Write a sequence for this structure.
């Protein structure tokens, strides 16, 4: 039975999906936003969770909270597995495995992207990437556990392995992670460890291109590399990871292949569109590109399916990069298109992207920014970066909380306040390179003594603590 109100189902509550939902706040529609997490994740600050600067809650507000004042919208926690375009139904599984059918009049798919290992899927086992809160917490546990192990280790070779961190990919995420690892090892942790000198840590940043931050201006690239090197980061350009296992990585650069013993490899090298892009392509006869993205019309609808829109990281449109601004602007735009259609008004002009520039931090109080046609580096770039990132966080509480946490961590105490790990988490991480979500079966490194009264598997504990 058709409902009275026009039903819009939005798949994904990330940058694209949330902006589409918000864009429909004053429209005569009923919006159901379905996401496999209960939060809107501000991915650009994930690296700060991974390095103990920010707690996850500040960058991942509950979707329900975000849309609580939008009476025409509802949030559902479910995993979408089928988009039935002929019957206009989205099929999803609830957390307990129950089947949900969500009928729609208009569908917006904004399911984002995940890691791409460029045909080396087995690397995923040894070099986790960072896309979710769980990934970031897992990396943080891993990084901190390695320093703990180095403190305990009496064998210099083993200690060196624990203190060697290899980041693969020198785009903004890789640069930001490597910079913070440098800060941790060289500036924050040395005073706290007694047996090990954390300044001995070796941080390698591998990049296949000829410069770090490949899409940025050469001046900013040079500054970034120099600043990273001042933090003790070894930058290897024209270098590709070719093999890895639990204790090492082999990469090939201009001087030939080299194998380095390490317990930590972090993947920051590539992205692949959500499998829902492929599903939509198969159902509409479209072809995805090499990154698995589906092409869309200039109003973000799918060819031959005007009632289905796809936006953000999972689409290719006007060669736009897979970053937050295109997803946000497409979301807002699609909201306007749907609103006009439902009101029987003329559609807006085709989607036009407004480039607001790009920026990345390079460790503490230093960043590069390309905005307003100008290039900024150092503290000025860092202040701009901080202002913009705070502005786009959701909710004043999160903005103020983030500013306070930054001030405390970086200006007043030179510490990282969110470094909570436990024996179980450390053990869990040290026995497997896969995050809890990606493992075939729980791995129990050591049983807790019964007297401690907790029989939960370490992987479950890891999920709860944060
Ligand atoms: C570590 C990292 C750092 C980044 N840094 C920057 C930066 O500094 N600046 C910048 O501009 N961009 C940055 N980006 C890129 C930016 O975050 C993305 O371009 C942006 O999030 C894309 O928005 P989206 O809506 O397409 O996807 P997302 O924001 O990823 O949202 C997709 C949503 O869909 C949900 N979903 C996926 N599949 C399903 C399913 N089957 N069922 C239900 N829900 C599903 C996901 O849970 C997610 O909430 C970064 C990305 C990462 C990972």
């Amino acid at each position: 039975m058709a409902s009275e109100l026009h039903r819009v189902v939005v798949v994904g509550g990330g940058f694209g999906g949330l902006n589409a939902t918000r864009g429909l706040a004053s429209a005569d529609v009923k919006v159901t936003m379905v996401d496999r997490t209960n939060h809107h994740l501000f991915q650009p600050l994930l690296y700060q969770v991974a390095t103990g600067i920010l707690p996850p809650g500040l960058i991942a507000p509950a979707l329900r909270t975000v849309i609580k004042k939008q009476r025409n919208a509802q949030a559902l926690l479910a995993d979408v597995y089928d988009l039935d375009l002929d019957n206009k139904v989205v099929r999803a599984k609830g957390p307990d495995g129950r089947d949900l059918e969500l009928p729609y009049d208009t569908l917006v798919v904004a399911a984002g992207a995940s890691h791409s290992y460029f045909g080396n899927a087995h690397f995923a086992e040894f070099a986790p990437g960072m896309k979710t809160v769980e990934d970031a917490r897992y990396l943080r546990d891993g990084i901190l556990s390695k320093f703990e192990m180095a403190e305990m280790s009496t064998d210099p070779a083993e200690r060196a392995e624990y203190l060697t961190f290899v980041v693969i990919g020198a785009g903004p995420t890789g640069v930001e992670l490597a910079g913070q690892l440098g800060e941790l090892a060289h500036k924050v942790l040395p005073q706290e460890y007694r047996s090990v000198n954390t300044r001995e840590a070796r941080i390698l940043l591998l990049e296949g291109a000829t410069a770090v931050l490949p899409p940025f201006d050469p001046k900013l690239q040079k500054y970034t590399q120099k600043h990273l090197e001042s933090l003790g980061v070894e930058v290897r350009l024209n270098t590709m990871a070719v093999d890895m296992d639990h204790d090492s990585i082999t990469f090939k650069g201009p001087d030939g292949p080299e194998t380095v013993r390490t317990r930590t490899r972090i993947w920051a090298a590539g992205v692949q569109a959500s499998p829902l892009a492929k599903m939509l392509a198969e159902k509409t006869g479209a072809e995805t590109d090499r990154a698995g993205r589906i092409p869309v019309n200039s109003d973000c609808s799918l060819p031959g399916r005007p009632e289905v829109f796809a936006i953000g990281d999972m689409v290719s449109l006007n060669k736009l990069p897979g970053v937050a601004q295109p997803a946000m602007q497409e979301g807002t735009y699609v909201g306007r298109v749907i609103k006009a259609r439902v009101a029987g008004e003329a559609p807006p002009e085709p989607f036009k992207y407004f480039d607001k520039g790009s920026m990345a931090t390079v460790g503490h109080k230093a960043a590069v920014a390309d905005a307003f046609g100008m290039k900024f580096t150092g503290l000025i770039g860092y202040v701009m970066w901080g202002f913009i990132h705070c502005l786009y966080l959701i909710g004043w509480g999160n903005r103020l909380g983030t500013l306070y946490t930054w001030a405390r961590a970086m200006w007043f105490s030179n510490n990282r306040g969110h470094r909570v790990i436990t024996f179980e988490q450390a053990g869990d991480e040290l026995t497997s390179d896969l995050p809890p979500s990606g493992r075939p079966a729980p791995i129990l490194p050591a049983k807790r003594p019964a007297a401690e009264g907790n029989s939960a598997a370490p992987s479950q504990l890891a999920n709860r603590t944060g």
Remarks:
- Residues 133-152 form the longest helix (20 residues).
- Residues 439-466 have pLDDT under 50 and may be disordered.
- The chain has two domains: 2-36+78-115+271-343, 121-269+358-461.
